[in-house]
Design brief:
- The chain is of the alpha/beta class.
- It folds into three domains: 110 residues, 3-Layer(aba) Sandwich (Cobalt-precorrin-4 Transmethylase, domain 1); 85 residues, Rossmann fold, CATH 3.40.50; 85 residues, 3-Layer(aba) Sandwich (Cobalt-precorrin-4 Transmethylase, domain 1), CATH 3.40.1010.20.
- Helices cover 36% and strands 21% of the residues.
- The chain has a five-stranded parallel β-sheet, sandwiched between helices. It has a four-stranded parallel β-sheet with strand order 3-2-4-5, with helices on both faces.
- Helix 5 links the parallel strand 6 and strand 7.
- Helix 4 runs parallel beside helix 5.
- The longest helix has 17 residues.
- It is flat.
Length: 322
């Protein structure tokens, strides 16, 4: 019996970004250089497959420094960034701390700090409770940062000095949603200080652009990544807004709900910035078992971003591209 035809449009860029590669390699290099255990505060990146793989190699993941014993072993802070209070607590305990915060997240921290020193109230556009937002707000004293999640928050804002405001953003937001929030801010507060360069990272922007190019052309879209990954969640939302009626977010091929797809002829496929290419290959292989698959890669940007490892782990080969 012949299989139905299925044309897969594979988004590019997709999957790992330079910050994720750097963070994962930080844990792997620490294990190579120092042996087990290596402690990691919070998931190094938001992907269960990646985290489970690092656990198998000897990484111990904790949510609080109190879970780390007094030890000489490395303690790594995740790519999302940590509040200053956490770094200070590690220093007070003389822990061997290694900061794997994405350099583009660190850039946001610096921008917020500069604006605070200039006497401005910092408005952080982002999602409450996300580790990156917690880390960014934790760079400044309590009350120095106000979280803005949507346009409604902008309308309700009543700052003491409307002339002394600045905004920064979480790096993994929807480009379109953020544009609307920024427009609302600049309309209400024409003198608000903007970042010198956009804070939404290149990887988030590029992956959303690729989805926008593919989603209107397919019957269904699969987004590969973990449910707690902000940039992955945004890809699904972008696909829906771009006109794709059937969108699913999954981590592994085993999670595919085949009843959703039925007699589709075209499928879009992408992956969040913390999802490895191995999972894309696994999913394509699963579709090949049921369909006669052809694959077309739709390239909307090329990426060559490069971040060196944290200085505590560098050697002559200590840098990575994605």
């Amino acid at each position: 019996m012949s299989k139905p035809l299925l044309h897969v449009l594979l988004c590019a860029p997709r999957g790992f970004c330079a910050g994720v590669v750097r963070a994962i390699e930080t844990v792997e290099r620490a294990l190579q250089q120092h042996g087990e255990p290596v402690y990691v505060r919070h998931e190094i990146v938001h992907n269960k497959f990646v985290v489970d793989g690092l656990k198998a190699k000897g990484a111990h993941f904790v949510e609080d420094l109190a879970e780390v014993p007094d030890t000489a072993a490395p303690v790594i802070f995740s790519a999302h960034g940590a509040p200053k209070s956490v770094l200070a607590a590690a220093a007070a305990r003389r822990l061997f701390a290694i900061d794997a915060t994405c350099p583009l997240v660190t850039k946001v921290h610096r921008e917020a700090t500069i604006q605070h020193k200039r006497g401005r109230l910092v408005l952080l556009i982002g999602h409450a409770g996300h580790p990156e937002v917690i880390g960014a707000m934790g760079q400044l004293p309590e009350g120095a940062v106000r979280l803005i999640e949507n346009v409604g928050d902008v309308e309700r804002l009543a700052p003491a000095d409307p002339e002394a405001l600045a905004y920064v953003t979480q790096t993994t937001l929807s480009v379109d949603d953020t544009r609307d929030i920024v427009a609302a801010l600049t309309r209400r507060f024409p003198h608000i200080a903007a970042p010198p360069r956009e804070d939404i990272c290149y990887a988030t922007t590029n992956r959303q652009a690729a989805v926008k190019a593919v989603a209107p052309r397919v019957d269904a879209m699969l987004v590969v990544g973990s449910g707690n990954s902000s940039n992955t969640q945004r890809l699904r939302e972008v696909a829906e807004r771009a006109g794709c009626k059937r969108t699913c977010m999954i981590l592994r091929a085993s999670e595919i709900d085949w009843a959703i797809f039925g007699a589709i002829a075209t499928l879009g496929l992408t992956a969040g910035a913390s999802a490895p290419e191995q999972l894309i290959e696994e999913i394509i292989a699963a579709f090949r078992e049921r369909y006669d698959v052809t694959v077309e890669e739709v390239v909307t940007a090329r990426e060559d971003m490069y971040f060196p490892l944290p200085r505590e782990l560098r050697n002559d080969a200590g840098g990575f591209k994605a």
